[in-house]
Specification:
With 80 residues, the chain is an all-beta fold. It has one domain. 0% of the residues lie in helices and 40% in strands.
Amino acid sequence: MTTFKPGDHVVFGRPNGTQTHGIVRKVNGKTLKIEQTEARAVRFATGPLRQAGTKWRVATSLVRHKAALGGGSGFESSDA
């Protein structure tokens, strides 16, 4: 099981969709409070832009450490 602590740089989002980068601000039992570090557009052009600083509550199972990704999103299949 991966452990998170406040100040960790993380990435979350759908495996084949937009990834959101952020910093862990608070660790709860099964969720993390994450502050978004960069602006992100939503899927549809009519939707709002998510500004840096937006707070998210995300399940720990959906979050990956940014440093552990090694340049990729962490969700690609490995080339064997």
